[in-house]
Amino acid sequence: MKTKIAVNAASGKMGQQVISQATSHSQVELTAAFCRSDHRLLGRQVGFNNIEYTSDIEQGLNQSDVVIDFSLPEGTMELVKQTAKTKTPLIIGTTGFSDEQISELKDAAKNFPVLLAPNTSIGVNSTLALLSLAAKMLGKQADIEIIEAHHKHKIDAPSGTAIRMGQAIAEAMGENFNDLKTTDSRFEKRTRKKGEIGMSVIRAGEIIGEHKVLFALDNEIISIEHKAQNRHCFAEGAVEAAVWLAQQPAGFYTMQDFLANR
Ligand SMILES: NC(=O)c1ccc[n+]([C@@H]2O[C@H](COP(=O)([O-])OP(=O)(O)OC[C@H]3O[C@@H](n4cnc5c(N)ncnc54)[C@H](OP(=O)(O)O)[C@@H]3O)[C@@H](O)[C@H]2O)c1
Question: Which intervals hold domain Dihydrodipicolinate reductase C-terminal (predicted)?
Fold first, then answer.
């Protein structure tokens, strides 16, 4: 049987990619595409599909097995109020949540499945495993710098992916990322502190998403890098994870749970 997928923030760049991926996937049926009630797409047909863009989220969720969200934190928190009623499994690709919002999402996940993924690409999630290995081998000696670049429209910084990479590195070293990260050392007129994880951010043009991690030793540098060539890689991972999440019990999941158990 096909997995019935609803797409939140369907008007967005990622929303459109997810629609395209869902409609070309043999095991998936696109059952709802949500946009805001004042959006010009409202009531228009979604591509060549037999559905229209709608702002009736509750009805759309009732027709769907799972919903995929790439919006802004406020949009996600609104959606969660609805999925809490319908108990619809929820894939969250949105980034930029506060710690309080993440606690709320974890609370909500006690009653229905929620998968939070600051990056849904299979490639980035494989890169996390490589970073853990490098951190275990080199983390204590190396200066570690995470450099990320995105398009000029992106609001949150550093990216959710860069933060997740930092967390994976810190966890592998038995440390807490919040104790090691620094974003402003260049502006503090000081030399680099031993053990800190530097975060460098570029916002320019239409860069889709690039992450590079340097493990710099005194005489050599190891660099691990991921470059998204287009947004398709994020949509592909999100739809595959949605097919999986639709079958899971209530709980809070990550892409690692999906990749390890699919
Ligand atoms: N996890 C990943 O792998 C991954 C990959 C790429 C991007 N992202 C993240 O995904 C999010 C969206 O990225 P994007 O490039 O698609 O951005 P975008 O093109 O600006 O689209 C944002 C979408 O969110 C909607 N939205 C904004 N605020 C909302 C609210 N309060 N309620 C309901 N809908 C709201 C917008 O609706 P309107 O059209 O009505 O404004 C639009 O549909 C960002 O957080 C980005 O960092 C994650």
Answer: 123-259
Over range 81-95, report the average pLDDT: 98
Is 154 catalytic? The answer is: yes
Quick check: 186 pLDDT over 90?
A: no
How close is the Cα of 14 to the center of ligand 1, in Å? 7
Distance CA 181, CA 194 (A): 11
Give me the pLDDT at residue 158, please: 96
Residue 184 binned pLDDT confidence (cut-offs 50, 70, 90): confident
What's the whole-number mean pLDDT along residues 170-199? 91
Q: What is the pLDDT of residues 130-164, one digit of tens each?
A: 999 999 999 999 999 999 999 999 999 999 999 99
Contact 144, 192 (CB under 8 A): no
- What domains can be seen in the chain, in order of their start residue? 3-120+231-261 (3.40.50.720), 122-227 (3.30.360.10)
Closest ligand 1 atom to Cα of 151: 15
Q: Which residues have C-beta within 8 Å of that of residue 29, sequence separation ≥ 6?
A: 2, 3, 4, 5, 22
Provide the token pair at 191: 């030399």
Annotated active-site residue in 150, 181, 211, 226: 150
Residue 114 neighbours by CB under 8 Å, 6+ apart:
80, 89, 90, 92, 105, 106, 108, 251, 252, 253
